[in-house]
Specification:
By secondary structure, this protein is α+β, with helices and mostly antiparallel strands. The chain is built from 16 helices and 14 strands.
Length: 443
């Protein structure tokens, strides 16, 4: 393999592929071990070229060889580190997001796979919350950035399935960064991915039954061994994340009446949000919540997974919603505009083919430029629009609401967003085309 430099959305992503000999020692200086990992260890190193500290997860030759043997035998289930590497490569191929840990490089040397990531100096959010008492305004900012990371992953059809304070790192110069993607899975409509994990419902959606995650964060559907929508389980886990962030305590041991010894979850099921509120008051923790944060929490913790807020709806909640930078330039439109615009485009027969092609070329050029002017969270919103449009149709309420949210956040009109959705660049970013760089081939 050859060294490849790929630039996507102004983010440089270096992938060196397979090397032999002394690449690690010549490019990086060992500082100390950060932690032991299931498949190896994580080291803190200094990168000479960038003059910065990085974290390197080193996968043992035994694990690398075992992954290849499974692949050779046609076994689709993958080891966690393989899934993690694939997800991180996918994330970087579309430019990444500041709320998701960046993959800087991956290479194989002397039988070991090396996954080089940005170093987060604050460590795990779990440890930070134990040592530092955060007031609600700080929690609000942290959770907003965290949910922007969740939205980004979901817009790529990636469900983390193990979201937690432990799997979120903290960088003092920015805030939370989601990491540890070993339990992640793709919401795939066209092919069977990880066949042993996937169960399809009548609509062909990839939903799952195996238990993934940590005790406090598991959704009721996972604990009941039912088919679950992985994106909905991420929202449940994120709500527990918020409760822990604000109070330092979990709301219950298990979201299952048979396991929850305190009875807190059973009381919630029987009495609803009022009973849950009374439990939190009895624990003398209700003062940790403002009316806004409490309202968001209970809407994310709905026992029926299909009634929970989506990541996009969470970010549009008054407690998390920020005033858009371009709001003053936004032309106020209703969500019917995008339908009207589509109808006009379909019915307009007065223009010649040449005029239509010229207009189409102009719109494509505008859209391609506009895409790169959007920040990563806004790009996530546009990708989410595309997913909703293709799966639910432009008449669906969820699509209409998402359209309105995206218009308010981006400052673009309905017609401009329609143009964005119809261009190759947004389609490719939504589908995740390969950026052409060569990487470790471990399957």
């Amino acid at each position: 393999m050859t060294d490849t430099n790929a630039t996507t959305n102004n983010t440089q992503y270096l992938s060196t592929g397979v090397t032999d000999g002394n690449y690690l020692n010549t490019q990086y200086k060992y500082i100390r071990k950060l932690k032991k990992a299931i498949y190896g260890e994580v080291l803190l190193c200094f990168h000479y070229a960038s003059n910065s500290q990085v974290a390197i997860k080193i996968i043992t030759p035994r694990s690398v060889q075992y992954g290849r043997q499974m692949r050779a035998q046609g076994i689709q289930q993958k080891e966690d580190w393989i899934t993690e590497l694939e997800v991180m490569q996918r994330v970087q191929s579309v430019g990444g997001h500041p709320s998701v840990v960046r993959l800087l490089e991956d290479f194989e040397e002397n039988g070991c796979v090396h996954i080089v990531m940005e170093f987060c100096d604050g460590g795990e959010m779990f440890d930070m919350c134990e040592n530092i008492s955060m007031q609600e305004p700080h929690c609000q900012d942290v959770f907003r950035k965290y949910m922007q990371g969740v939205l980004f992953l979901h817009s790529l059809d990636i469900s983390h399935r193990d979201l937690s304070l432990e799997n979120t790192l903290y960088m003092t110069s920015y805030g939370p960064k989601i990491c540890d993607f070993g339990g992640s899975i793709r919401y795939d409509l066209t092919q069977t991915v990880d066949a042993s994990l996937v169960v399809r419902d009548n609509n062909g959606r990839a939903e799952h039954v195996n238990r993934v995650g940590k005790q406090f964060y598991m959704s009721p559907q996972i604990l009941a061994a039912k088919q679950y929508n992985p994106k909905c389980t991420d929202i449940w886990s994120s709500a527990i994340f918020l409760f822990l962030l604000l109070t330092g305590h979990p709301p219950w041991e298990w979201a299952h009446t048979g396991y929850d010894q305190s009875g807190a979850y059973q009381k919630y099921l029987q009495q609803g949000p009022a009973g849950f509120m009374q439990t939190v008051k009895d624990w003398k923790l209700f003062h940790c919540f403002s009316p806004g944060s409490w309202d968001l929490l209970v809407k994310m913790l709905h026992p029926d997974e299909h009634s929970r807020l989506t990541a996009l709806e969470c970010l549009n909640h008054p407690w998390l919603k920020k005033i858009p930078a371009k709001e003053s330039n936004t032309i106020k439109r209703t969500t019917d505009d995008i339908l009207l615009n589509t109808s006009r485009a379909t019915l307009d027969t007065s223009k010649t083919s040449s005029e239509k092609n010229t207009a189409s070329d102009t719109a494509t050029k505008w859209s391609a430029n506009a895409w790169f002017e959007l920040n990563p969270t806004q790009q996530s919103q546009v990708r989410t629009l595309g997913l909703l449009a293709s799966r639910l149709g432009p008449d669906h309420l969820k699509f209409r609401n998402a359209l309105q949210m995206t218009m308010e956040e981006s400052g673009y009109t309905a017609e401009q967003l329609q143009s964005l959705l119809n261009t190759p660049v947004s389609y490719e970013f939504a589908k995740g085309t390969n950026d052409g760089s060569e990487r470790c081939i471990v399957m």
